[in-house]
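[[Per-residue structure]]
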Amino acid sequence: MEAAGKPFWKTLYFQVLVAIALGILTGWLFPDFGRSLKPVGDGFIKLVKMIITPVIFLTVVTGIAGMADLRAFGRVGAKAMAYFLTFSTLALAVGLIVGNLVRPGAGLNIDPATLDQGAVSSYVSKAEEQTVTDFILRIIPDTAISAFTSGEILQVLFIAILFGVALALVGDKGKRLLGSLRTLTAIVFRMVHILMYAAPIGAFGAMAFTIGQYGIGTLANLAGLIATFYLTSLLFVILVLGVVARAAGFSLLGLVRYIKDELLLVLGTSSSESAMPLLMEKLERAGCPKPIVGLVIPTGYSFNLDGTNIYMSLAALFIAQATNTPLSLADQLLLMGVAIISSKGAAGVTGSGFIVLAATLSVLPTVPVAGMALILGVDRFMSECRALTNFVGNAVAAIVVARWEEAVDLRRLNAAFAGRGGQFTDEESDVLQIEGRSDVPA
C-alpha cells in the first residue's frame, strides 16, 4: 500500500503512466531504438515471473494449512470452476453476437490464397500441441522440484495444494513450520515490492518495442476490428462484470480504482502475469481470505480468460468475413464449443491468445487458418486489452467466490476500495478463513 499523503509523482500509478506515454513517443519517433528496447520489457516480465512461483506456493500452503475445515477448500474449488465455465462461455457468446452485428471484416474481400501462411506457421505448430489430454497431463509435474523451475502455474498450484493439505493434516506438529512459512511469505511479498521499483522501466521498454516494431500506422489498417474488440471488452466489463459485482455487494468502479496501479502495469507490459503478485496481496488486504485468493487467482489465469474468449470469437468471425467464408449457426456453435476447451490451456502471457486462436481454427476447417496473417500485425495491440479484461475478470471472480462463502466483510472491502483503509492485519487474515466468517469487527 502506498503511504497516505504521498506526492502523486511518487506513486506507481503516475510513474507507469508516464513510462507508457514516453514508450509510445519513443517507439513512434525512434522506431529502431524502440525495437532495441525489447529486452527491457522482457527482462521485467521475467523478474516478476521469477517471483510468481514462491508467491503462489506460499499463499496457497499457508492458507490451506491455516484452515479449520479442509472440506471448505474443495467446495471453494468447485464454485470457482463453475464460475469460470459460466463466464468464459458467456464471453465467447458476447464476442459472437457482437461480431455478427458489427461485422468488422465485411467488405475486405481477401483471397485466402494470397495470404502468407508462413507468417503464422509457428503459431499453428504450437497450437497443434494444445490438446486437452496434454494440457491435463502438464498439470502433473515430472518431479516435485520441476514444478518450481518449469514456470507452469498450474503445476505449482497442484504441488501447493497437496503440500498444504498434508501440512494441515499433520496438526500441531506442523505449526512451527507453518509459522516459518508465514514469515517467508512476508519476505517474498517484500521482494515483490522491491521489484516493482523497476515497473516503470519495464513498461517503457515494452511499449517502445510494441510501437517501434509494429508502428502506430498498423492500427489504422484494422481499426474496425481493434475498436470493436476494445468496445466489446469494455461493455463486457461494465455490463456483465458490473452486474455481477453489484449482485455480490461491491462496486466494480471501486475495484478498478483500487487496482489501478496493477491495471496500468498490465497495460504497459501486455502481460497480466506482471501484476499477479500485487493483485493477490491487494485482495487479501481488502479482506478476501488467503485460501480463496491463492486458489482462484492462479487457477483463473488458465481457466477464466474473458478477454481471450471475446478475442477468439471476434477474430474468428473477422477472418471468416474478410475472406467471404460463410459460417452457419451450427459452425459458430461448434467454434464456441472448441474455443471453450482450447482456451483453458492459455496462460495470461503475451501471445497466448493468438496460439489458442490457431488451435481453435485448426479444428474448424471452414475458416482458413492462413487468415490469421490478417491480424498478426495488430495482435500485440489487442493483447493489451485481452490482458486487462482477463485481469479484471479474475479479480471479480476471487471476490465473488469469497462472497459466496460469506468469508469477506463488505464493510472492510468497500472501505478499502474507497481508499479509507479497512485492510486486515496479518493476524486477522489468518483468522478469517473460508469458514463462513463475516463477523470480524471493522
Observations:
- The two ends are 19 Å apart (CA to CA).
